[in-house]
């Protein structure tokens, strides 16, 4: 049972005076309505009080904590949950992380929302939610669901900002936010976040930081240096990205060209030019830009460079070169379903339907919800 509105999956009931779930059950105030998770077999008006279990109540409370933030009885519900499950925060966090690892995004999101509802002031939870939505956005973008990915990125940004606003400050909030801002091409904020991370950890000795902390400090400095050396805070670069990403490709291209005249060694700028040209279906020009990006320092380390180059090579009829580019991309990002799908489309262009079917089947093994791969796979099976 997966209702469109999660709150439709619960009843609100009042227990009769003297009602006891079991000898060791939690204490319930009969004057306050309790949320109770419906059973799959329940139909409207079929609730049986005699079958009520403690687990149904706890599940109902978690649903309220996740989706009914204005409920006047939240404090009471939290107290029930805390008494019944003293280790609930750890249990929920472990469950959410496991679900995210298995890419069960919807259930992982519901668990994180419930955990946040249980303790909305816990900044560690807020940071974990930022990381979760960041990861979720990346997964959706790899499968071509860009609007969904943008929405989850917006959620991630909101939680990152909350985590960075904590007192005392959490260094890891700034470190992870730095990479989030790098991903969204907001290099000014990325640099500021990495600088804040270094400032917060500068007085810590190596023994305090540990091996992972030392790595993070070196990585943060490396990212700051790259942003500085490539002039990625430049106004023209920022404007160009903003224009192209908002569908104003021609204006974005006009903005990035003068930047490239001054900074021809910056692979990100060549990538941006190629991206704008590719979106305008100027595939030959875009291909040349991506080739330049690949030649620059750092450009050959980015799977997107090779993937975008391959798209252009497919459109210009250079199938062997496109395959080489996609293999290079896949070596850098082996589970990227967007790249694997493009290998499928390349096989179709070459007339090899069996090879294409294998690629789309692989995509569906990684992500059964990939609509484009599913559509192509089903169509190919019809043609057998």
Any descriptors?
single chain; two-stranded antiparallel sheet; 3 domains; Serine Threonine Protein Phosphatase 5, Tetratricopeptide repeat
CATH class of the largest domain: Mainly Alpha
Structure summary, number of beta strands: 2
Sequence of secondary-structure elements: EEHHHHHHHHHHHHHHHHHH
Q: How much of the sequence is in beta strands?
A: under 5%
Spatial strand sequence of the major β-sheet: 1-2
Radius of gyration: 26 Å
Average pLDDT over all residues: 89
Biggest β-sheet description = 2 strands, antiparallel
Assign an overall shape: globular
Offer a concise description of the structure:
With 384 residues, the protein is mainly alpha-helical.
List the helices and strands and how they pair.
Blueprint: E1 10-13, E2 34-37, H1 54-67, H2 74-84, H3 88-101, H4 105-118, H5 123-142, H6 146-164, H7 171-183, H8 187-201, H9 206-229, H10 235-245, H11 249-262, H12 267-279, H13 283-295, H14 303-315, H15 319-332, H16 337-349, H17 353-366, H18 371-382
Antiparallel strand pairs: 1-2
Helix pairs in contact: 1-2, 1-4, 3-4, 4-5, 5-6, 6-7, 7-8, 8-9, 10-11, 10-12, 11-12, 12-13, 12-14, 13-14, 14-15, 14-16, 15-16, 16-17, 17-18
Describe the 3D structure:
It is a single chain. With 384 residues, the chain is mainly alpha-helical. It has three domains: 6-84, no CATH class; 103-229, Serine Threonine Protein Phosphatase 5, Tetratricopeptide repeat (Alpha Horseshoe), CATH 1.25.40.10; 251-382, Serine Threonine Protein Phosphatase 5, Tetratricopeptide repeat. It contains 18 helices and two strands. A two-stranded antiparallel ribbon has the order 1-2. The mean pLDDT is 89.
């Amino acid at each position: 049972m997966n209702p469109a509105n999660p709150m439709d999956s619960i009843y609100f009931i009042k227990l009769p005076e003297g009602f006891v779930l079991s000898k060791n059950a939690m204490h319930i105030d009969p004057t306050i309505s309790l949320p109770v998770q419906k059973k799959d077999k329940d139909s409207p008006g079929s609730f049986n009080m005699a079958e009520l279990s403690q687990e149904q109540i706890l599940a109902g409370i978690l649903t309220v904590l996740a989706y009914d933030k204005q409920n006047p009885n939240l404090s009471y519900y939290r107290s029930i949950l805390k008494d019944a499950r003293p280790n609930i925060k750890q249990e929920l966090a472990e469950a959410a992380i496991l679900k995210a690892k298995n890419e069960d995004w919807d259930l992982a999101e519901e668990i994180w929302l419930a955990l946040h509802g249980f303790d909305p002031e816990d900044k560690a939870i807020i940071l974990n939610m930022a990381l979760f939505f960041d990861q979720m956005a990346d997964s959706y973008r790899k499968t071509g669901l860009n609007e969904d990915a943008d929405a989850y990125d917006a959620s991630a940004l909101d939680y990152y900002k909350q985590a960075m606003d904590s007192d005392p400050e959490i260094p890891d909030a700034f470190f992870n936010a730095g990479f989030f801002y790098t991903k969204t091409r907001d290099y000014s904020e990325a640099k500021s976040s990495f600088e804040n991370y270094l400032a917060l950890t500068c007085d810590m000795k190596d023994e305090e930081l540990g091996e992972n902390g030392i790595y993070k400090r070196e990585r943060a400095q490396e990212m700051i240096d790259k942003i500085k050396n490539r002039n990625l805070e430049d106004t023209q670069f920022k404007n160009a990205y903003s224009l192209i990403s908002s569908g104003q490709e021609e204006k974005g291209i006009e903005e990035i060209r003068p930047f490239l005249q001054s900074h021809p060694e910056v692979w990100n700028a060549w990538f941006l030019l190629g991206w704008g040209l590719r979106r305008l279906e100027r595939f030959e020009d875009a291909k040349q830009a991506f080739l330049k990006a690949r030649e620059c320092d750092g450009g050959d380390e980015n799977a997107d460079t090779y993937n975008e180059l391959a798209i252009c090579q497919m459109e210009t009829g250079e199938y062997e070169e496109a395959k080489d580019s996609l293999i290079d991309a896949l070596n850098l990002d082996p589970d990227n379903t967007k790249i694997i799908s493009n290998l499928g489309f390349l096989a179709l262009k070459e007339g090899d339907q069996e090879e294409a079917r294998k690629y789309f089947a692989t995509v569906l093994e990684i992500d059964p919800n990939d609509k484009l791969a599913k559509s192509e796979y089903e169509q190919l099976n019809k043609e057998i």
